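fyi for ur records
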Amino acid sequence: MGVNNQIGGVFMLLICLTGQAKSLSFKTSLQHD
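which gave:
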């Protein structure tokens, strides 16, 4: 159970990081326009 929870936490962190990267690249692309 602890290992499964740890994997879920890492997965959520990964989603959070990719989401921030996407929004960041989206903002820069908007500024370029």
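The chain has a mean pLDDT of 85. thats all i got for now
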